[in-house]
Amino acid sequence: MSGDLGKLEVKSVREGEGRIPMQFAVPGVTDDDLSVMKTWYWSDELSLDAQAALLRIEVRSYLMNVDGLNVLVDTCCGNDKQRSVPWAHRLQTQWLQNLAGAGCGPDDIHLVLCTHLHADHVGWNTRLEDGRWVPTFPNARYVFSRKDFEFFGRQTHEAHNREAYVDSVLPVVEAGLADIVDSDVCVHREIEDGIWLEDAAGHSPGSVVVWARRGGSRAVFMGDIIHHPIQLVRPDIPFFADENPAAACATRQRLLEQCADNESVLFPAHFPDPAAGRVRRAERNFSYGFL
Ligand SMILES: [Zn+2]
Asked: How far is the CA of 191 from the centre of ligand 1 (A)?
């Protein structure tokens, strides 16, 4: 999938996919909610029975080219990582080949932006070389939000996120490639255009969304503010991995409204393909037009 928004070029770099029971991931979704979603999105894998439905979750990065700058947003789970969850443990995926297919080798990346520091968004920050974790992108600056950097350095109830912090975040900092920043910061600016972060706390304390604007086109990379289209119908239900459920729901509602009103193209980290689309206001909260 690729989207060319004027001079803002975005490509998806896929790692893999997984499935989670709907009632575990977004408990309280009803048969009726699924029927509403069915009017604008459906897949053969889905079921109208909310008790039986499975959520398909893609894991992908986005590669954006703006002003000749190659920007990677989120870096999936990574290969060879020791994880206490089976879905991320010692993966051997084609992600680097997929990045090459999108036109970039590791040396070509200028900027790595992690929307938050969960294990499925930081993995390819590093790779295993002679038994050590080294930065995958030696010529890049990596941008991490300070609140997540502090939070995951201190605590997290999930071992795999702690493991990711140790092998996929700290080695980048130790190599001197990290910029640890506030949650509202501009990372690249041209006249009228640029790339900037917006605070999106809730899913994690330092979650950010990445906005990009170029020649009148606007894109937003939402990380884990939303995982699946069903959350456009039910933005009020916390996702199981939200660290602060109430804040995560409020943030999701606010950003989806913003996205609908300023007609940005949304690039969600985990939606089914073709992931990019436009959020619209609907009778029941929001709907989505896949591009
Ligand atoms: Zn995620």
From this structure: 32
| 223 class by beta-carbon count within 10 Å (0-12 exposed, 13-18 middle, 19+ buried) | buried
Query: Tell me, what DSSP letter sits at residue 94?
Result: S
Q: Per-domain residue ranges for the chain?
A: 2-290
pLDDT tens for each residue of 79-120: 999 999 999 999 999 999 999 999 999 999 999 999 999 999
Give residue for tokens 């193209």.
Answer: 265
If you measure from the C-alpha of residue 265 to the centroid of ligand 1, how many angstroms do you get, rounded to a whole number?
19
If you measure from the C-alpha of residue 226 to the centroid of ligand 1, how many angstroms do you get, rounded to a whole number?
9
Considering the domain 2-290 in this protein, what is its CATH number?
3.60.15.10
Q: Give residue 85 CA to ligand 1 midpoint distance, Å.
A: 14
CA dihedral sign, ordered 98, 103, 104, 109: negative
Q: Give pLDDT, residue 44.
A: 84
Whether this model's pTM surpasses 0.85:
yes
Question: Taking CA 72 as the corner, what is the angle to CA 189 and CA 227, rounded to the nearest 5 degrees?
Answer: 110
